[in-house]
């Protein structure tokens, strides 16, 4: 049976990160008739590492590596030439780094988004999927604020298409990914008996596995409608339960909520819930139809308190 991905040229921006690498492996293994995959990132050493890995695993054919930065509009246009699908994973992602490098965060996460949109329109890319975060909902830090603006840019980008442009733009939004580079899980595993700082014993977060995220992204590329935000129905867990599952008996100490942190994250705002289609496994948000009665926002506190969505320790240990 012919697949949607057969004969497609795919560009992964920020392709040497945890998500980009996982997407590359899954696309190459599940869809062998893909025309090619382009990995675009700034770090030549990480590109070299990834190239060695995929060649050793026998999936290096038709994978090309492009050095560049989403801040460079001219480089993006060259990279987009002949591409059918773009997944934008490129961003400054760490809250602390964005707070101490605010202009660079804006240039990458907002200016970079603008450049991606312009290049996609100029090169008539078929589909563009932007990767966002739950921190874009009611943002309290610069990282979340820049991602919120980037979401709006991609959702509203279709107004620039005109009648002759075929490009569709959409977003996916999710929370913390187990095992991603620099994640909380990584920090806990490195504790090695040392006391782990926790901000508040009641703090909750949404979690999802890398495998689930890649499946979700691949599915949304295939069935996407322009102007949509797609949000997987994620499970939530208390941070103290996560620590206990990963490092049983490891000491902890409370340090209070830090700058730019929330006690509970929000996956879908109350305003967005007006226009959200709630399925079994995701929310589909039409941003241009926020007109009906306001519903409660979908927060990690709400999800953690529901038995049917709570991430229990047995499930967590199986995932990890």
Features:
alpha/beta; Rossmann fold; 9-stranded mixed beta sheet; 3-stranded mixed beta sheet; 38% helix
Task: Explain the overall architecture.
This protein is an alpha/beta fold. The chain is 38% helix and 22% strand. The protein has helices at 18-30, 44-56, 73-80, 95-100, 102-122, 142-156, 184-189, 210-223, 239-246, 270-273, 300-305, 313-319, and strands spanning 9-13, 36-41, 63-67, 85-88, 127-133, 168-174, 176-178, 196-198, 204-209, 228-232, 235-238, 252-254, 266-268, 276-278, 282-286, 298-299. The protein has a 9-stranded mixed β-sheet with strand order 3-2-1-4-5-6-10-15-14, sandwiched between helices. It has a 3-stranded mixed β-sheet with strand order 7-9-11. It has a two-stranded parallel sheet with strand order 8-12. α1 packs across α8 (210-223) and α3 runs parallel beside α5. The two termini are 34 Å apart.
Strand order of the largest sheet: 3-2-1-4-5-6-10-15-14
Shape: globular
Which superfamily, in CATH terms, is the homologous superfamily of the domain at 9-175 and 209-232? NAD(P)-binding Rossmann-like Domain
Unreliable stretches = none
Q: Classify the fold: give the CATH topology of the domain at 9-175 and 209-232.
A: Rossmann fold
CATH architecture of the domain at 9-175 and 209-232: 3-Layer(aba) Sandwich
Estimated structural class? alpha/beta
**SS element count, helices:** 12
**Beta-strand percentage?**
15-25%
Counted beta strands: 16
The span between the termini is 34 Å
The average pLDDT is 89
Report the C-alpha radius of gyration, rounded. 20 Å
Write down the CATH class of the domain at 9-175 and 209-232. Answer: Alpha Beta
- Give the helix proportion (percent range): 25-40%
Series of H and E elements: EHEHEHEHHEHEEHEEHEEHEEHEEEHH
Q: Tell me about the biggest sheet?
A: 9 strands, mixed
């Amino acid at each position: 049976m012919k697949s949607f991905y057969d004969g497609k040229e795919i560009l992964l921006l920020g392709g040497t990160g945890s998500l980009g690498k996982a997407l590359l492996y899954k696309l190459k293994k599940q869809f062998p008739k893909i025309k090619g995959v382009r990995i675009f990132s700034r770090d030549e050493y990480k590109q070299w590492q990834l190239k060695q890995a995929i060649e050793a695993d026998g999936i290096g054919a038709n994978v090309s590596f492009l050095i560049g930065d989403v801040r460079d509009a001219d480089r993006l246009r060259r990279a987009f030439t002949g591409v059918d699908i773009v997944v934008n994973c490129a961003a400054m992602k760490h809250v602390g780094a964005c707070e101490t490098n605010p202009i660079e965060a804006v240039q990458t996460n907002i200016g970079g988004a603008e450049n991606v949109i312009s290049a996609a329109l100029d090169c008539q890319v078929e589909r563009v999927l932007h990767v966002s975060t739950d921190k874009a909902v009611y943002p309290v830090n610069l990282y979340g604020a820049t991602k919120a603006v980037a979401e709006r840019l991609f959702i509203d980008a279709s107004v620039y298409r005109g009648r002759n442009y075929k490009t569709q733009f959409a977003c996916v939004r999710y929370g913390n990914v187990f095992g991603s580079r620099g994640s909380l899980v990584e920090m806990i595993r490195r504790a090695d008996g040392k006391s782990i700082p926790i901000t508040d014993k009641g703090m909750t977060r949404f979690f999802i596995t890398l495998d689930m995220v890649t499946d979700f992204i691949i599915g949304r590329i295939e069935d996407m409608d322009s102007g949509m935000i797609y949000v997987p129905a994620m499970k939530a867990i208390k941070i103290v339960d996560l620590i206990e599952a990963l490092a049983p008996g490891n000491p902890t100490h409370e340090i209070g909520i830090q700058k730019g942190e929330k006690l509970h994250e929000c996956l879908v705002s109350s305003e967005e819930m007006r226009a959200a289609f709630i399925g079994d496994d995701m929310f589909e948000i039409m941003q241009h139809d926020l007109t009906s009665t306001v519903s409660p926002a979908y927060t990690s506190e709400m999800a953690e308190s529901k038995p049917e969505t709570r991430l229990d320790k047995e499930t967590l240990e199986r995932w990890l």
